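RECORD TYPE: inverse folding
INPUT: C-alpha cells
STRUCTURE:
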C-alpha cells in the first residue's frame, strides 16, 4: 500500500511537470513569448523525472517522452510510454529491459524476417496446440507455419479469406474466393504437396474444422459464402492420392474436382456469412452474418442436410463475430 501511494504521488508530480512543459512551449511559440526564469529544458526534465521514478525508467524512454511532448503540444503522450511499454521495432532494446517496479513484462521473441509482403494483410490465424505451432494465411496467398523454423508456401492464387488445420489428415486448409486449398506441409516434395479443390460456385469467406469423428483418415470442414450458404465438406485420405490428378501447367497445385467430394450446403442467411465454427462442447455449429433477420444460427450440424427449422436469432445490422466460453457456458456475439 505504501509503495502504491508513493508511486501515485510521484505520478501526480510528473503530470504537473508535463503540464508545465506544455504551457512553457506553447508560450514560446506564441507572438507574446517572454523569458521564463524557471524554464524547463531537457536536462531539468530528465533530472526531475529520474528523481521521481528512480531506476524504473531508462534514459532513452525519458528522451523519447520529452521529444513527443514538444512535438505534439495538443496531446501529450501517455505516461505509460515513460516505462517503455511502446518500444518501436527498431529500438532493439526489449531484451535489455530490466525488471521495473511498475510493470512486469515477459520477454517475447520477435520474428525479424517478414513473410508477408507490403500491402498484404493476415486473413486467418490458427493455433495448433498439440503440435505447438501457429498457422497464418495472408490475403494475397502466403500460408505460413510458425514453428522452430518458418515454413511457408506462396499460393499465387485468388485472395485467401480464411484457414484452419485438419487434425486427422494433418493438412492445412484455406479457402479463397473460388477454391479450397489443401497443403500437405510435411511433404518434402515442395512442388507436389498442394491441392486445389474447384470449382466452388460462390465466393467463400470463412472456414473451420469440424471435430466430430475419431476416424483417423477423415476430416470435415464448414465454410460460409457471400450468398448466405453454409457448406459441410468431408475429406478422406484417398482424395489426395497424387496419381489421380494432374497439375495445372506452370503450377505447383494438383487440381481436384469438387464434385468428387461429399459436400452438403444450406442457405441459412440472406447476407454474407462472416464466421463459422463448430463448438465441440455443445456438439453444435454456429454461423453469423450481417443479415438483420437471421443474424446468428446455433444448431446441430445435421440441419445442413435437411430442411428442419434452425435455432436462430436476429440482431439489428447483424453479427460480425462470436465465441463460446465453456467455463461460463455462454456465447458472446459482436455486431
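DESIGNED SEQUENCE:
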Amino acid at each position: 500500500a505504501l509503495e502504491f501511494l508513493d508511486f501515485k504521488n510521484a505520478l501526480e508530480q510528473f503530470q504537473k511537470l508535463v503540464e508545465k512543459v506544455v504551457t512553457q512551449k506553447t508560450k514560446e511559440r506564441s507572438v507574446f513569448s517572454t523569458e521564463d526564469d524557471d524554464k524547463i529544458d531537457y536536462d531539468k526534465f530528465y533530472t526531475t523525472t529520474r528523481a521521481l521514478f528512480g531506476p524504473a525508467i531508462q534514459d532513452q524512454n525519458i528522451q523519447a517522452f520529452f521529444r513527443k511532448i514538444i512535438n505534439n503540444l495538443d496531446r501529450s503522450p501517455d505516461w505509460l510510454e515513460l516505462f517503455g511499454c511502446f518500444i518501436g521495432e527498431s529500438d532493439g532494446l526489449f531484451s535489455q529491459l530490466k525488471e521495473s517496479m511498475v510493470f512486469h513484462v515477459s520477454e517475447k521473441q520477435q520474428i525479424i524476417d517478414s513473410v508477408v509482403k507490403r500491402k498484404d494483410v493476415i486473413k486467418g490465424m490458427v493455433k495448433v496446440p498439440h503440435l505447438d505451432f501457429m498457422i497464418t494465411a495472408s490475403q494475397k496467398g502466403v500460408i505460413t507455419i510458425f514453428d522452430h523454423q518458418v515454413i511457408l508456401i506462396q499460393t499465387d492464387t485468388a485472395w485467401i479469406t480464411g484457414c484452419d488445420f485438419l487434425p486427422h489428415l494433418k493438412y492445412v486448409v484455406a479457402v479463397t474466393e473460388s477454391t479450397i486449398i489443401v497443403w500437405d506441409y510435411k511433404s518434402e516434395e515442395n512442388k507436389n504437396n498442394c491441392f486445389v479443390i474447384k470449382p466452388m460456385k460462390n465466393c467463400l469467406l470463412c472456414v473451420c474444422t469440424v471435430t466430430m469423428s475419431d476416424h483417423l483418415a477423415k476430416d470435415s470442414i464448414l465454410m460460409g459464402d457471400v450468398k448466405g450458404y453454409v457448406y459441410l465438406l468431408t475429406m478422406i485420405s484417398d482424395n489426395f492420392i497424387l496419381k489421380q490428378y494432374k497439375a495445372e501447367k506452370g503450377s505447383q497445385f494438383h487440381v481436384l474436382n469438387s464434385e468428387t467430394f461429399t459436400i452438403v450446403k444450406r442457405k441459412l442467411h440472406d447476407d454474407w456469412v462472416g464466421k463459422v465454427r463448430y463448438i465441440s462442447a455443445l456438439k453444435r455449429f454456429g454461423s453469423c452474418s450481417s443479415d438483420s433477420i437471421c443474424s446468428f444460427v446455433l444448431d446441430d450440424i445435421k440441419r445442413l442436410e435437411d430442411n428442419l427449422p434452425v435455432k436462430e436469432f436476429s440482431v439489428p445490422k447483424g453479427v460480425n463475430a462470436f465465441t463460446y466460453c465453456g467455463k461460463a457456458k455462454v456465447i458472446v456475439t459482436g455486431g
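NOTES: Residues 2-28 form the longest helix (27 residues).
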